[in-house]
Design brief:
The structure is a single chain. By secondary structure, the protein is an alpha+beta fold. It has helices spanning 17-28, 58-66, 85-95, 114-120, 123-126, 152-158, 171-182; strands at residues 2-6, 11-15, 37-42, 74-80, 102-104. It folds into 2 domains: 17-109, no CATH class; 144-203, no CATH class. The longest helix has 12 residues, at 17-28. The protein is flat, with a radius of gyration of 25 Å.
Length: 205
């Protein structure tokens, strides 16, 4: 995605990268053919058995395995342009794909670039009342028992609580961890860390 802002018009113009290449690539090489584009998606899933693994080495093992996802099994090929059927068949055979795993792109292969428009454009443009490109910010709430960390465990003895993020604020979880870290009866805290922010308060306990 390539985008720019015209401050005089208070407007934004954006172009998909493959559209720009399709427009200017052929003339740049004095070619009469129209360029085509492909996008290959690989399987990023993997399984690991941690039963015999030293807990302290788990982060290093995970980082190593995450680095191999770019070599995963091909699972989808998207294409844009007028490709010969022979090329598509050869790609299907070489990549070991089934016919229903080849998809013609309806518009662009770079639709994920729209996130840049939503997240990076100035607020006064993105949040126009008559033509907003963003949903209003979600107002998360902290459930009542978690507003008073001193009483969290008393409330948990009475009933279970299900935190539904992002509708329930993540601050509720942080306060729960804070209360556990300060409770003398708590001897160990275990949690599954999944895509947690590098500066997350829950990592400081």
């Amino acid at each position: 995605m390539v985008w720019g802002m015209n401050e005089k018009e208070d407007a934004i113009y954006f172009f998909f990268l493959d559209d720009l290449l399709a427009t200017y690539l052929s003339p740049s090489f004095s070619s009469s053919w129209s360029p085509g584009f492909v996008r290959l998606t690989r399987d990023g899933d993997f399984t690991m058995d941690f039963q015999d693994t030293d807990p302290e080495s788990i982060p290093d093992v995970m980082m190593t395995r995450l680095g191999t996802r770019e070599k995963g099994r091909p699972i989808r090929l998207q294409y844009e342009g007028d490709f010969p059927q022979g090329f598509l068949h050869k790609a299907q055979v070489v990549l070991k794909l089934s016919r229903h795993e080849l998809f013609p792109a309806p518009t662009s292969l770079c639709l994920q670039g729209l996130w840049a428009v939503v997240n990076q454009v100035p607020d006064h443009i993105a949040n126009k009342k008559d033509n907003s490109i963003r949903y209003p910010a979600l107002q998360s709430k902290v459930p009542e028992p978690f507003n008073n960390p001193v009483n969290i465990f008393e409330k948990l003895r009475e009933r279970d609580y299900l935190l539904h993020h992002p509708y329930d604020s993540f601050d509720a979880f942080v306060e729960w961890m804070r209360a556990a870290a300060e409770d003398k009866e708590v001897i160990r805290i275990e949690q599954t860390v999944y895509r947690m922010d590098a500066v997350s308060p829950s990592l400081i306990f």
